[in-house]
Design brief:
The structure is a homodimer of 185-residue chains. The first copy, chain A, has 185 residues and is α+β, with helices and mostly antiparallel strands. The first copy, chain A, has helices spanning 78-90, 148-161, 175-182, and strands at residues 12-14, 23-25, 32-33, 38-47, 50-56, 65-66, 69-71, 93-105, 110-120, 129-135, 169-172. At the A-B interface, helix 1 and strand 8 of A face helix 1 and strand 8 of B.
């Protein structure tokens, strides 16, 4: 951020009066430009003993497999965002059965939320997917998953499925967790 | 948003190529300025048969009672944000026991998350609180609560406490829910 989005003057990165951390502050009009984490919402669509994955047609991690998920938009609820992303990426509808993983990624200012659900009807690759397919546990392409959040969600699911109980799992992804996927920067 | 925060030129509010909704787009440098919901994180601090509430020293809803909660910052996890807000508003530490309510407020682009926990040690009013106090169920100032999210979280808690089971509750707040607190705009 270089300029104030309200008045167009250059901003400073300083600690505003009464605050405890630096913000982008416009000295001309006084606007403080707060920056906050974004939510990535998606689903784990289940069909019998299979789960649905999407092969990414876009960067980052083009060609790797992911669950349908993406940035939540203004005006949406979290389940609505998860359902929309599933529709966009996998042309699929899911009967949502609750929030399943909430994974914090503080080093990239994201909170990842996956809702578990039952896949309803057909599916197909949306514009951001090269391919959409169903996988049994022994078919999951563990070495070709796009993100550590996806691997963690799938490992929770196959473990929880053995006792048919699917509680919410809250955890953090560290920069080290991400290195296996993206290499060190 | 009137100006591009990257290059300082005026922005347009248009649907970018390949997108499906209007965004603030800079025609000069091509930057698309996405806007996304923000997370409000906080805690429900429990001490025996009492819960901790804070009387707000700031607008909105100055003088009304709330749970310690506030906007999650970049670089934090959701539990860390909840704990920080509790420290700031109630000078209190809480042993967190899981995410308890996740309430979507799509009409104001917020997602509210409360973690339930055990209050540890002392507490006091932080700079954003006029007063911090413990309340038994029959002492809760139901008509003086700050927000519908707070009322809903407390009602879930006192109901769940009867069977000592505290599952996550996911729900939405509608504009009508808020009218009782803020009046119609």
């Amino acid at each position: 951020m270089n300029y104030c989005s309200h008045c167009g003057q250059p901003v400073s990165f300083v600690i505003p009066p009464g605050d405890d951390r630096p913000r982008y502050l416009c000295q001309a009009c006084g606007t403080i430009h707060y920056q906050n984490p974004r939510i990535v919402a998606g689903t784990l669509p289940v069909s019998g003993d299979q789960v649905l994955l999407c092969k990414r047609a876009i960067a980052p991690r083009l060609g790797y497999w992911t669950l349908p998920a993406g940035f939540m938009e203004n005006g949406e609820s979290t389940p609505a965002a998860a359902a929309r992303e599933t529709r966009e990426e996998a042309c699929a509808e899911v009967d949502l059965q609750g929030l399943y993983t909430l994974i914090n990624l503080p080093h990239i200012n994201q909170v990842f939320m996956i809702f578990r659900g039952t896949l309803l009807g057909e599916f197909a690759a949306g514009p951001e997917s090269l391919e959409v397919a169903l996988f049994r546990e022994d078919e999951i392409p563990w070495d070709e998953l796009a993100f550590p959040t996806i691997e963690r969600t799938l490992r929770h699911f196959f473990s929880d499925r053995q006792r048919n109980a699917f509680p919410l799992h809250v955890s953090d992804i560290t920069p080290e967790d991400r290195e296996r996927y993206f290499g060190s920067a």
